[in-house]
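Standup notes
- HV: blocked on the assembly model, inputs below
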Amino acid sequence: MNDIFKQLHDQMKPRQELLDQLDAKLKKADEVPVHKGKAREVFSGLLAAACFALLAGVVIISQPTARTVSQAPSEGEVVAVQAAPAADYAELYSSVKSIWDQAHRNSGWAAPEGAPQAMPAGAASSEVGVLYSGTNVQVEGIDEGDIVKTDGKTIFVVKDQQVLAVSAEGADSKLLSTISVADDAKIGDGKRLGDVQEMMLAGNRLVVVASVYNPTDFYEGENGNAQQDYEVAETRAYLYDISAPNNPKYVSEFGQSGSYKTTRLLGNTLYLVTEYVIGEEPVEAVPESFVPQVSTGGTSSLMDAAKCQVAPEADQTAYSVTTGIDLTSAKRTGELSVLGGAETVYMSETNLYLAKTDWNYTATTEATNVQLARISLNGGVPKLEAQAKIPGYLLNQFALDEYEGYLRVATTTVGNDVQLTILDSSLSKVGQIKRIAKDEALQSVRFMGAVGYAVSFKQTDPLFALDLANPAKPKVISELKLPGFSSYLHPWGDGLLLGLGFPGDENGTTQGIKLSMFDVSDPASMKEIAQKVIKADYSPATDDHKAIYVDVERSLIGFAAGSYGYYEGDDTASEDYLVYSYADGKFKKVGEVDLADIGETGQVRGLQIGDGFYVAGPKQVGVYTLDGLREVGAVGLG
Amino acid sequence: MSAEPQLAAVEPLPVRTEADATHRAVERYGQMVFGVALTHTRNRGDADDVFQEVFLAYHRRQPMFNDDEHEKAWLLNATLKLAKKANSTSWRTRVVPISDDVEVPQDSFEFATDEQQRVFAALSSLPENYRTVLHLFYFEDQSVKQISEMLGISEAAAKMRLSRGRALMRENGGLDDE
């Protein structure tokens, strides 16, 4: 251990008071009679929480699959549940309060296991004659918010609280304008604007999403100075008219309670999803303490009780808030909040699906379920249609897919079985593959109509082909075992499937990033027909689909990756944007761009526009040739 | 689901009346549990809560272990999960610093020197995967092999996280070039 770490280590010790406290609790715990119902009265505050957890633990020893108390069926069943709109704020309050009380006494918790977004790039658009690559999205025709957007003429790049507009004119590209959200936003006294999170682009409208923070308490710092804390209050979509990209005009702003989850665009309607966590104990006389709000032009109002639904088995005081906004008329079309939260969002052309994993962990057992909600979107009006609970947890948005009226859901159960469940529109189970893989976790999944592909991993990478033509009888068609695993799958035309992930050997994964091409023209006999292991230590492409540029037509794949001197000593750190081509059964490197002047790997995107390739990040937009990636220009962004 | 049958089944279980085994675990692993809790919650209040919850769970459950490594791994994983829970529910982490000129007060843990504070800040700002691996490597003197076993990841993954974590620490000014 080197000295500085030793110094830190010596100080990172539990204080004597803490040890004494624990000691007292241990003694008390030994005295607790093992009777449910008594525990809550015996102890108060933190102690009650801890001891209740322990009791729950003991209860479960005798029945390992049962969940505690009155919540939820045990893991293993798919249960469709009825949604309940609140009649008024009083009813909403009592729901929120009871969940609050439960959560602050209960040992079970929900740990938001980041729902990594993942998805395929590059539905090329050609609206103005120039072909360009859009954001790599899950569902063709439904755009997803991102940090770089283009319409083939202008590239918009997020940089802190600003959005920079750069013309895509090859060597003549230049900075057109800078949008400073802070100049236009109606924030209100004492509040602060956060950094821009993502953008959406539709015709002449640019949507810029950023959160607004509320001041909370003042604290006295170590030096005696007052310090101010902030917490996220709401997330807002700022609309700009970019008909003249050199002179963007602020149009309006739409806000809603909670922190940003995602945006989707279908036609001209933007859907904004946030998660609003109630962090302070709700007070019935103060609806603001438990009712989500929406704002227009900086003016907030409480959502109607009728728009607030309570998921029957919500176990956290967190709402998902979904609104529709018509970008042409700049009007909100609908709003809905569901008490129960949201972490994974998938949208088809007719429905939005929100999923939240309910991690229920005690010292002895885990019973983890996905709470799923189907929200219809007719005319931009989100409406809760059905809810269900499915055992296990979701990998990411790709684990959800709607096809011919059925929803397919891939989960990994706590027992590490990879499962596939098919639900009808009421979210009732119609079919299931109980165990695609045993003792493995799902690593990637892609549904392509009547066929699905799933990758699980323990030591090797089985790629499974699934026959989903009959929703009542889904089945595994075949399995292809390979070292390593793909964390992202992308359809590659004509019976091919692209995989991006990690290489491996018989002992597990090894260093690098691996591209694979699978021949799936006969799903009963899949083959890996090409592979390339790229020397790199990490890439955002392995867990964020939007970080990948996939252009099937041009046979190109691009992503950022970084390398560090491997392990001790050697420090040849570098970050690059890499482009590969696939042809004739081979991956070939087209070129690479050093990211030092452009941005960090997670902040950059590669775009094809016309015959140029652009790598855009907060520091610079670089312009390159499509073949060979030779630099032809660069626009510095300060 | 009726709770009664479970209770009936539970009652015959002996209730432990002495805390020796737990005390022994606190002595041996208390610093690891507290340290991991601290680097994963970044503040003393939550670290204290996690510390207590881990050992209370240990005490009540009295888990059976094959060996010391197994016990250590159990405590580590319990700490990580409870820290995650604390982070998802604690007001302390819902507070978001949004500007360089606003100091983040939190219920912060004070180290003796600015340099130590800076190294801790750099470490605790790493993504969780890296933080855990670096913590075990630097503070607990665990080998890459031990780390991979404790966390249930491959050795290559452990090395990758260690390497990346060190590089990020360097970028954040928390680690001098060596």
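- HV (later): unblocked. The radius of gyration of chain B is 19 Å. Chain B has a mean pLDDT of 74.
- Next: hand off to the docking folks.
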